[in-house]
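Notebook entry, structure prediction.
Reason for the run: the old model in the group folder had no record of what sequence produced it. Starting over properly, with the input documented here first.
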Amino acid sequence: MKTVNRRVLAGVVVVAALLAVVTLRGPGEPVTVVIPAGASLPQVASILEDHGVVGNARFFHVYVRARRADRRLKAGTYQLETGSSMASALRRITRGEVVTVALSIPEGFAIWQMAPRIAEVTGMRDSMVKDSLLVPSMADVNGVPGPTLEGYLFPETYFFAEGVPLGDIVAAMVERYQEVWTPERLALLEASGLDEREVVTLASIIQAEARIVDEMPRISGVYHNRIEQGWLLQADPTVLYALGGYRARLLFAAIDSVEDNPYNTYAHGGIPPGPIGSPGELAIDAALSPEEHDFMFFVARPDGSHAFSRSLSEHNSAKEEAQAGRD
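New structure, fully documented this time:
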């Protein structure tokens, strides 16, 4: 009897192996298949049969057991084809070749701007993502200077499986940020007299100010000159950050309304407490290697470029010209 059972099992395995390498229904159609977390092998086999990926759940079950792959099945959303060979279906599920979605974070984005995009991937509410990312302890957990994760979630295009935990996204973005700190940049940081938080904060302001990449080092030079001279930075983007977001015009009344906010660089000296957005590599490079000059002011022209000035009288004239160009 045992010999017969062994022969039957061997026969089933042989049949399963043959079926594993052939396509059951010819050229297949794409089908989305969701393998739930914790799904057992019989459940996975049934799901694949129900979606027409494999022709027989029992044969797939036996095939997977024969390959000793039942503990290597990975949950997730898969884009498979109907009529697939069992070998192909098993290979993709054990490798975890799940459907991924793109998460694109532009340079300069603040957490309030990136939260809705991250929420689409995680399935969380926007507000929950934003609040979680701004918890101060998250900076310590992820090994960045803080005071929160603002500025350290590197702007890049990432690919994640749908429903990925927020912590996995944060880890990937912080890891990409940390990759920016090459030995060359670390040497420049040490020579700058600033710490990492100050450099990234300054880079985030430069990123927000510059519309033309080539101007970044010159803008950086202005801020470095102001720091060295003990002047207020008077950077509009920091005030907008304190106000909670972009405004077409920044009026003095709005600036005064956030006078007590430490991010108001019209009222508080030095570099703000932390970044106001996520700078890209070029902005970080500009903060580390400012252009050497004696400019102390700049104003934006209508075309996005800036006029740089050495004195307040020059600056006021440049502002009048820029305003005339807008009228």
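Summary: Confidence is low (pLDDT under 50) at residues 20-24.
The old model has been moved to the deprecated folder.
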